[in-house]
Prior knowledge:
Chains A, B, C, D: One of its GO terms (molecular function) is thymidylate synthase (FAD) activity. Four copies of one chain form a homotetramer. Chain A has 300 residues and is α+β, with helices and mostly antiparallel strands. Chain A has helices at residues 3-13, 25-28, 52-63, 65-68, 73-82, 102-108, 155-180, 190-193, 211-221, 228-244, 246-257, 264-274, 281-284, 288-298; strands at 17-19, 34-37, 41-49, 93-101, 115-118, 139-141, 149-152, 202-210, 260-262. Chain A has 14 helices and nine strands. A five-stranded antiparallel β-sheet of chain A has the order 2-3-4-8-5. The longest helix of chain A is centred in the middle third of the chain and has 26 residues, at 155-180. Chains in contact: A-B, A-C, A-D, B-C, B-D, C-D. The interface between A and D is large, with 58 and 58 residues.
Amino acid sequence: MTPEQKAEIEAARADPQPTLRAVSEGMEAHLYRAHEVLDHGFVRVIDYMGDDAAITQAARVSYGRGTKAVSNDEGLIRYLMRHWHSTPFEMCEIKLHVKLPVFVARQWIRHRTANVNEYSARYSILDREFYIPAEDDLAAQSVTNNQGRGEALTGEEAARVLDWLREDSTRAYDHYEAMISQEGQQGLARELARMNLPANIYTQWYWKVDLHNLFHFLRLRADAHAQMEIRVYAEAMCKIVADWVPLAYQAFEDYRLGGAQLSAKGVECVRRMLKGEEVTQETSGMSKGEWREFMGVVDA
Amino acid sequence: MTPEQKAEIEAARADPQPTLRAVSEGMEAHLYRAHEVLDHGFVRVIDYMGDDAAITQAARVSYGRGTKAVSNDEGLIRYLMRHWHSTPFEMCEIKLHVKLPVFVARQWIRHRTANVNEYSARYSILDREFYIPAEDDLAAQSVTNNQGRGEALTGEEAARVLDWLREDSTRAYDHYEAMISQEGQQGLARELARMNLPANIYTQWYWKVDLHNLFHFLRLRADAHAQMEIRVYAEAMCKIVADWVPLAYQAFEDYRLGGAQLSAKGVECVRRMLKGEEVTQETSGMSKGEWREFMGVVDA
Amino acid sequence: MTPEQKAEIEAARADPQPTLRAVSEGMEAHLYRAHEVLDHGFVRVIDYMGDDAAITQAARVSYGRGTKAVSNDEGLIRYLMRHWHSTPFEMCEIKLHVKLPVFVARQWIRHRTANVNEYSARYSILDREFYIPAEDDLAAQSVTNNQGRGEALTGEEAARVLDWLREDSTRAYDHYEAMISQEGQQGLARELARMNLPANIYTQWYWKVDLHNLFHFLRLRADAHAQMEIRVYAEAMCKIVADWVPLAYQAFEDYRLGGAQLSAKGVECVRRMLKGEEVTQETSGMSKGEWREFMGVVDA
Amino acid sequence: MTPEQKAEIEAARADPQPTLRAVSEGMEAHLYRAHEVLDHGFVRVIDYMGDDAAITQAARVSYGRGTKAVSNDEGLIRYLMRHWHSTPFEMCEIKLHVKLPVFVARQWIRHRTANVNEYSARYSILDREFYIPAEDDLAAQSVTNNQGRGEALTGEEAARVLDWLREDSTRAYDHYEAMISQEGQQGLARELARMNLPANIYTQWYWKVDLHNLFHFLRLRADAHAQMEIRVYAEAMCKIVADWVPLAYQAFEDYRLGGAQLSAKGVECVRRMLKGEEVTQETSGMSKGEWREFMGVVDA
């Protein structure tokens, strides 16, 4: 962040105003502040709507007197999460300002149930900022998993990769700048010149989403199988959400992030195993892949 | 509203808290208060996110330096509305508590891009409240329009209709109550008993929507062709939105509510007419229906 | 079905035409035919797009050469379902014609990711057809579950309920008809008269949805906790889907319908139990409700 | 297209099968065939659901007997389009296979109401194919419009731009290939290596959308203000849709593509002008920008 940007944030934080809306103390502390992610990225909360009580309030509208029997908000929120009631969580909303590499943005945007305003490279000139992985993150292709990573590269191979990433970014941006320059020339249209820029250039957007869909995003992207470069954004958001709606986040951690889905065959196997039967992949009815994943759940 | 409900609202309004978020003064005055609609319905604002400045702020993220040339927020918002830029308007969100007859709710829910928590008649017992039209609103079927209304019914016909609506509602609710009663009997499941209730019974829900989709709803439902019983809700919401985001609402009024869509043939006819040519339905290339609607736009 | 409707269906089925699109043999046998549900309802397939091979074809576009290593379509479809890959299933689409009571339609429409054209009671006159439960389905309110059903009502209580449902429907429709009649009177607007009709009247719609969202619908509505009157529609659709995309349906049955979700605490308990530890609700960290549901999964 | 791909397409077209579904003759002629766009891109129809008759059939379910008075399908489709009835058009669906540059894909994906399966550069290796504009398309930045194009570049400036686009693409791909190579080295993970590739590289996806949302896409992207590189895809699709649903496409052309939206002020000005009044920007109540656009509609 530049000193100018930091000053802007502090100015935005300097002037609280009275409101009659639900206020989340934990979230007010985050507002506008940048949580740094990767080498030049960040996540900032720009606005939010609702808190834990807004979730139970909506549930009580739906379920009426019945829900009043549930003694407290925590129990009700856990019940709603456990039973896949999605609409009460949709009553909370968050608006984030995110700066992220284009290849991460391309994965992110596949989650369609959100509102987005992205910086437009048709209208405006992109900044010279590129994601260059830290050496430890320069992972080899996994030898067992088509979409996974192995160990970090080392020695000359690592050095060569880093050099290329740096040099190609620099050259691409130099040419981008030269192509659009209007000093002594017409200047290529920005909407065309941008095509020369690689996918590690940073873009930024406002991203607004309700809590139910945010949880869905976080379940997939804070997962160990997600690409590291998007996972770190998801992890930064998890911390923010934990401060915003602590009860809902705790339920999410227990029932989604830390939970597991068993198939009908998996349920059957657990029952047989608990009755003392020795079950093997061969007698489980599962394929080798399924069995390996099943054992990862029950036998850790 | 019962005195108890009024007291609840005043209590909710009694305790402003500081926030760093964008605050709309006009909207704070509405928060929690009930705007009465029809005989027992209402619209209440429960929460909101953003204001006029949030729209231009999002646009400026997208369009970067280019938008800074536009001298002020009003001009930018009008530009965005005129050119169908929808995403900046999606950055504002509103959450309403609405009480409405079931047949109105059934029309309303066809707008899918919103979040809803409706009172559940599986869990809870519905109140004895039915919409009975005022005598002036007891309209006859239009003789020219399959879905329209004509003049109000009069005399015996009107009286008979009102009697039936009142008596059938009362009887249906009496039987509903008797069917679910557990005094001296098992009591029919609520999820079954509700099927005896007519479509003029009131239900309620929390409805949360972004400003772009709300404008789309209002354009269709505040229109003269919308059924009166949903239009009055749309009109109540129009007043709220005018106080919430006055610049956006003014642009919406000019470009959507008060505007008109011309077909390619319509554009061609306007051009010919402005050059002094006399154009008739026969020479317009339009069908009779299209021509009638076209003349309603240009010749009023 | 009237003889006229049956003749229409047979006429629609009489004239196969050549197509180059993917064809599902199982689905062709269903096209246009009515599967009867409840006393007057039905589900009919009007159109469909794709088959099992369309799912794997889309997956192979996404995952490229990697997916070719998976030896066959069945294994790939099971992998996609197990790992929550939703987009390949979105490549199949189905269009249904459904006739259903209004109170069922109101539950159904809460699933927003679908396209709907419903019969309009503003334009047209509804038919005199009401859902009257069979005696065995006249369930009492559950004494343990706010939204559940208990045993069937019996004796006088049952008789009285059935009489009321029948009589009130009949009277409401008689008055509806009399109110809109234009013989010797103006006739109340249809959009108003419909408000007198109870929620057990039948409506109908075209409902179009992709396979991923259909599976989501079926998981919730073919579940034992769904209201019986919507569950029977879900069950009729399950049979249709099983014929349309047999491999996908089998995976859905195993991983969704028959599977179970364990929380982090649930996973931990299963591991402890498999190591021989005796775990009780008190030592599980779960609430009583959670424990009861957990035992329902592992101990059946 | 390689000879192998052409053979695949011919094979897919060689074996028509009988179906009872609605068949569009015009669309069958397109199935699987590649419509070339830009230097290496294409659009291919993979599947479709429905035809013109499916639109009116759905409308007739909704509007019942009322719509039978409309003498023919063409009149009804025009009526539906003119009055913004969207749901009957949602009853048709199309699935396309598209190959397109990444910067075009990034614009395209902003339309969220569609299903997408994109080629994954995490799993698979991208091909060495880049969009290099034809010389005539190498437009300068517009001097009047932040997002527009001016005249084509010429001479040395054009030559230099083309050289850079070609050289930088080639070098970026060479390094991409070298980074992931596993000959004598570990090989960088594909999910990382892809970040070196510029936005003019081609990707491909399956894109499935309903006709209403496709029309919305085409209205924005076949417009003169859309970037040329996406407009050519929209134009290719327009031709396909014209063959698929000729009546709906004609109505779309008349009411959307060729039509114009007037604001309330614009309507007022047209009325005044038709009454013989001389209206200027100053007396119109419009800003200069609005007036210029208004004159573009009425005075061409």
